[in-house]
Amino acid sequence: MALSGVIFDFDGVLADSEPLHLRAFQQALAPRRITLESAEYYERYLGFDDAGVFRALADDGGWALTEAALAELIAMKGEYFEALAHQGGALFPGAADAVRRIADEVPIAIASGALRSEIEMLLSAADLRHYFADIVASGDTPRSKPAPDPYAKAVDLLRGSTSAAGLDPNGCFVAIEDSNWGIESARAAGLRCIGIAHTYPADMLHGADTVLPSIDCLDIDAARIVCQRS
């Protein structure tokens, strides 16, 4: 099938924001005297949205988490993240150029577990927001990754832009992902997938059609090639 659109994950693919997320989670948890180590975060909680991280931490640690407490933690984490993000330099080298290269050829969107406000803030700061036809963020679907919902919704939204560009709205859509949670989500939604070895080594990105060492290696030919594979 011909390539119809590309859907990017955000954290770990375009934005090198996982260290910022980790620090924001740590700061939000500090008043409760709950620690979250770096290795623990990357091994166990990466790929969850904010609510999912706090719920998983509570389940794993055996501490009570009411809906009110969860909402407070999410709000605190968001405030800490915004303060850290405003310091700048959150995108991976070459990410902006990769976005422009792909957007010049096909419509693009984002499917992410990050908060919409965080995505919008970082894209606007890099003058990239206008390249994305649609954004699916945390809370926009009933289930988050690794369920297929975020990518399925992103494809549905992107089909209008695909048709307007003269491309097949039922053609091949490619996901750009950095984690197995995201790859599982994309594949379950029927997308082809290119893995980006920013967060995990290439040999750990099981299920991707191909893996690139970094986002600056991504071009339209790589996306078209995975669509042509049987």
Question: How many domains comprise the coordinates?
Answer: 2
Task: Give the strand order of the largest sheet, numbering strands 1, 2, ... along the chain.
Answer: 3-2-1-4-5-6
The parts where pLDDT drops under 50 for at least 5 residues are none
CATH superfamily of the largest domain: HAD superfamily/HAD-like
Fraction of helical residues? 40-55%
Distance from N terminus to C terminus (CA atoms, Å) equals 9 Å
Q: Which range does the strand content fall in?
A: 5-15%
The topology string of helices and strands comes to EHHHHHEHEHEHEEH
CATH architecture name of the largest domain: 3-Layer(aba) Sandwich
Radius of gyration: 17 Å
The CATH topology of the largest domain corresponds to Rossmann fold
| Backbone shape | globular
CATH top level of the largest domain is Alpha Beta
> Mean pLDDT, nearest integer?
94
Largest sheet: 6 strands, parallel
User: What is the strand tally?
Assistant: 6
State the helix count: 9
Structural class: alpha/beta
